[in-house]
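User: Can you predict the 3D structure for this chain?
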Amino acid sequence: MTKASFVTIKDPEGELETLLQTANTLYENTLKLAKKNNSNERIELVVKPMLEDLKASIENINQKKNQVASLTDPKQRAQELGDPVSFFRMTVNRAETQLPTACGQLVHGENFRKY
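Assistant: Here is the predicted structure, written as structure tokens:
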């Protein structure tokens, strides 16, 4: 029995690179903002746990990416990365919508990433 993909992604490796860029930028910018507002209760209770979740997701997907890198068959690499990239995409999308709000920012996506 073959493993069914959660969501079919045509180019999981390409999408992963884009998602990693977005996640890393979002993480760094939010971390800077959180450090500026260190005593803010919302930062302590909401933002820092979200940042830890995002950081853990980045580390996990990088581990998976390194494991899959040794596979020579591009089809097999794509199959192995498909589900993890789908879940990582959901994590990044959630962080993009929740972190700016949790930080009290009324800006969306690109503006927040530029900080």
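The chain has four helices and no strands. The two ends are 48 Å apart (CA to CA).
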